[in-house]
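re: ur question from earlier - yeah i can do the single chain one, its not a big deal. heres the input i used so u can compare w yours
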Amino acid sequence: MPQKLSSYETALSLIDTANNADPNLVSADGRDWPRELLYSERMSDMLQRYKPDADDTMKLAIRAQHIERWKSPRSDYPMDRIGYLKWRKDLYKIQANAAAALLQQAGYNSAEVERARNAVAKKNIKGNPDTQLLEDVTDLCFMEYYLLDFVGKHPDYSEEKWIEIIQKTWNKMSGNAHSFVLTGKVKLPESLTVIILKAVS
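and the output i got, formated as tokens:
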């Protein structure tokens, strides 16, 4: 008789099944991935490197941070700053509710469901340790895996503009995350290392 899955295993499977449906494919590690499934794998890997003793609720919240993100495209909103901010605010809420629903389905109690919901919704970053942990992992993952691509999409940005962007990301991170970067535990893009260190020094 098959062994019954734990609540954690069930929730993890539900999250991965949802993200595996992403129609947008990206190439990494010699294969094609649904984009948000790859992102969730990278987030979990970064969490394991950064805070290996994180509890199961935060492991799931971080795994689910971009859950079904493709269902709320940026193009559905006006292409200006107000539209961007509205999209981002709505996206946090949609993703938080989706993550919470899957944890509830897996059998988590209401307190743990709300912890995950609040973290994914990025509520009270500097005041809520769960949200700060999710923010740290998000920013560490961005610096290692996504910053180089982001730079490539904005060839018109000056060095001063990039320093400003990097500093804004840095300021959202905790002191522990700063140390993690500065002690070489994040694989910074080689071509950007100088400007990153200049921005955060």
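The chain has a mean pLDDT of 94. not sure if urs matches, ping me
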